[in-house]
Design brief:
The protein is an alpha/beta fold and 479 residues long. Helix content is 38%, strand content 11%.
């Protein structure tokens, strides 16, 4: 009977090349058995893992997986580990090497989450142990006023992340510029919520087109680095909705990011990652956000309060928080009824939903070759589009053909261009042309991109070009 079903399958698949060859009945029967067994195996696998049916919605697929998870597996998904070497300890087994790592649930076909910092490019070298292509500062991309430029940049960094083995990018910096002293203004998209929301939303859309989850951050009002772990940003809720939250609402509406990262600071006295009005009412209620909320690294201060407020995943708590709140403490809170099981299930569901919705499960990231020349052109286009203040229509600036000399002073302009510091600092494929600059520790090391302004100016200038590094003020003034 099996053979007859197999022969029928061969008739249906008669157009296949290997069925056109003549063969005796014995060979046909053996082939028929093989074909039928293969089809049966595939059907059995599909029956065993119905969540792998791509015709189902991400929510339906997430519910099917959730029903199969053990308690320990649920808690495994709601926290990440620091995914790199630290304090003399090796990275977790299975981690590519990055900011965050959630182990796979292999028995159910759920891959690990490999999370890389990536505000302006993939900052973690990953398995290939090579650098990445850096985008211009976020504020420069915003200055292009061109959503297609932002989208192309997102596609580029999402593609590089995927080819390095990452499936989550902590990309989508959206905090409005409220103070010029903020150390991360360069990452963001300016002070206007409409412009910032449209540009960052399109960056997120580009990243996720490569089947990589993007993370809009830092939600919300993370407008100062100094004192970010303790300060409270106090603002009327109506004013907040009309400014910073409006930028997030627009970006989420355009990009539909798989994740939103809650920030370090307090808002009106309450920490952002345990702020029920911010996370549960506005984000998940008013905006109907379906993805998951992850914490910033070191932004969690409690278990039950954070979970009940709407935090879904604690990030690298074993390194950055006082304890891993979403393990022992949260387990006790659930057991004692302080946090309902329905909330724990919702946390897990949201994470799985984002993985299905963005192709992370159906099409896992696999390391592959990167076309750095092509990606470099994307970065260059963004830089040119954002350099609007350097245009010189009608020779408004005195840079006429009669110019005889140009003095280039300071900034290691003979070697490269300084990159932003901290978690967004990208190591170029060609390395750092000015290594060893302080600070060597966090938020360093300070890095430069090997694209020397002096060389470019000398190529374009018609007159003499001279350089001084600026350490000797008198020599620079004389030049």
């Amino acid at each position: 009977m099996i053979a007859s079903h197999g022969l029928k399958a061969l008739e249906v698949a008669g157009s296949l090349p290997w069925t056109r060859y003549r063969m005796n009945r014995s060979k046909r029967r053996r082939l028929a058995v093989f074909v039928f067994a293969s089809v049966l195996a595939g059907t059995t696998a599909a029956a065993q893992r119905p969540w792998m049916n791509m015709a189902l919605s991400p929510d339906a697929r997430a519910r099917l997986v959730l029903a199969q998870l053990t308690g320990d597996e649920k808690f495994q998904l709601i926290r990440s580990y620091f995914g790199a070497d630290h304090d003399g300890k090796p990275k977790p087994a299975g981690a590519v090497g990055s900011a965050g790592y959630v182990p796979a649930i292999a028995r159910l076909g759920i891959p690990a989450l490999q999370e890389s910092d990536a505000g302006l490019g993939v900052t973690s070298p990953g398995v290939q142990k090579i650098g990445s292509t850096a985008l211009p500062a976020g504020i420069a991309t915003a200055a292009s006023f061109d959503p297609s430029v932002a989208y192309a940049g997102g596609v580029m960094i999402g593609g590089q992340a995927r080819r390095k083995g990452y499936n989550v990018l902590l990309a989508g910096g959206l905090n409005l510029v409220r103070d010029p002293r903020n150390g991360r203004n360069f990452e963001y998209a300016g002070e206007d919520p409409l412009l910032a929301g449209v540009m960052v939303g399109n960056t997120v859309r580009g990243v996720q087109s490569r089947k990589v989850i993007s993370t809009v951050k830092h939600y919300a009002l993370n407008a100062l680095e100094t004192g970010r772990n303790t300060l409270s940003a106090d603002i009327d809720p109506v004013a907040l909705r009309e400014s910073d939250l409006l930028a997030f609402q627009i970006a989420i509406g355009i990009g539909d990011p798989g994740s939103v990262m809650c920030s370090y600071n307090r808002i009106n006295g309450i920490y952002a990652c345990e702020h029920p009005w911010l996370l549960d009412r506005v984000l998940k209620g008013d905006w109907s956000y379906q993805g998951f909320v992850m914490s910033d690294w070191g932004a969690v201060h409690g278990a039950a309060a954070s979970a009940l407020a709407g935090l879904d995943q604690e990030s690298a708590g074993e390194v950055f928080d006082q304890e891993v709140f979403f393990d022992g403490s949260l387990r006790r809170a659930v057991a004692e009824g302080k946090v309902p099981m329905s909330r724990l299930n919702d946390m897990v569901h949201r994470i799985l939903r984002s993985m299905f919705a963005n192709g992370v499960i159906d099409d896992p990231a696999v390391p592959a070759r990167i076309d750095f020349d092509a990606d470099g052109k994307v970065s260059r286009r963004a830089a040119e589009a954002g350099a609007v203040l350097l245009r010189n229509p009608n020779e408004l600036l005195p840079l006429s053909r009669k110019l005889k000399s140009v003095a280039v002073i300071g900034g290691h302009a003979d070697k490269g261009v300084m990159a932003g510091g901290g978690s967004s600092a990208v190591t170029d494929v060609d390395g750092d042309p000015v290594p060893g600059l302080a600070p060597l520790g966090w938020p360093g090391p300070q890095k430069y991109q090997p694209s020397a302004p002096l060389k470019a100016i000398a190529k374009l200038a018609r007159g003499k070009v001279a350089y001084a590094d600026g350490t000797d003020v008198a020599a620079a003034a004389k030049l």
